[in-house]
Amino acid sequence: MNQIPQTFDVIIIGGGLAGLSSAIHLSKYGFKVLLIEKNSYPKHKVCGEYISNEVLPYLEFLGIDVFQLGAQKINKFELSTPKNKLLKSDLSLGGFGISRYTLDNALYEKVRSCHVKTVKDSVMDVQFLNDGFSVATKNNNTFKSKIVIGAYGKRSALDVSLQRKFIKEKSPFLAVKTHVKGDFPNDLVALHNFKGGYCGVSKVENDTINLCYITDFEAFKAYKDIDAFQEQVVFKNTYLKSIFKNAAPVFEKPLTISQISFSNKRPIENHIIMCGDTAGMIHPLCGNGMSMAIRSAQMASQLIIEYLQGKIPSRYTLEKAYQKSWNNAFGTRLKVGHVVAKLFSKNQLAEVLLTVLNRFPALLPKIIKQTHGKPMVIK
Q1: Is pLDDT at 346 greater than 80 in this prediction?
Q2: CATH code of 164's domain
Q3: For 114-247, where are the alpha helices, taking DSSP H only?
Q4: What pairs with residue 144 in β-bridges?
Q5: For 219, left (φ over 0), alpha (ψ -120 to 50), or beta?
Q6: Residues 6 or more apart in contact with residue 79 via CB below 8 angstroms
Q7: Tens digit of each residue's pLDDT (9 = 90 or more) over 228-249
Q8: How far is 253 from 178, CA to CA, in rounded Å?
Q9: How many domains does the chain contain in total?
Q10: CA distance 142 to 3
């Protein structure tokens, strides 16, 4: 027997950084919110785990103190090429390192304390009809709402049903993440390039080092397994070899994710407001995907609040406003990410680029600034 549909002001599909942040934000204004997430908490995710300080004011507004959770303050940056040329810079705005395991769980506990309705389930279909949404799940639940936020991550079966353009395109990237214990500065985030990819290194809570690299999947398949690929490709970068070889693994085995797409996405699909990776992914070489997810949640939530309060007169105006806010906040970041990643994918060009940056040291902070944003203003 089918369950009686339940009605909400907002349904959020996906309980990552964007979805959880939106749920807390909207609940503060008394709206009836449903969060649908298929996984349990806490859970590790493949992620660089470095976040720009731009989001600290918003996290404080949500009631999250990342430094009480053990986050590491980061204000230095290193970049190396496959031929082991190294460039260093200060981070003017700075950031912090914290695992998704810890941050997601802290946000989830906050969601629970805000009396947001949460359901462990997978969304199979979303229909928009008569200026409202009907959301159907794998467990035969049906929910209705005025607004739907899509915050379900990099790719999903829902993208197929929505016929999103990027889902039909080739997604050739594979990402690998592990946590280790070893010697690495608390205040440093490093990006070390190797042939066909690059690896981010930074400290998170509990004196743990996060190592997360991305590579071309076709190139990776030429090797027997992750260990063989690392030995024969990744460790050609001596900085990475030193870190990996002198560290003890925390995870039993690395986490992996494939079919990663950096193709352009649309922040509105079938009237669903997309946030975080669901709306667009920046190349990890430029970092800050976690910050983008949190910032997009703030932008979407504020506009949705104004719409539900009648301050924004129509859904059309709401969607246009979010599209504009997204482009203003992230359009340049995504373009810079594509350009920088393309440059560093060409090994010889990467060496030339690093030589130029060494000769003109003021250029690197300017590039970093394009992806770090400014401290968020909370309305």
Answers
A1: no
A2: 3.50.50.60
A3: 157-161, 217-220, 226-232, 238-245
A4: 7, 134
A5: alpha
A6: 86, 87, 88, 89, 190, 191, 192, 193, 354, 357, 364
A7: 999 999 999 999 999 999 999 9
A8: 7
A9: 1
A10: 7
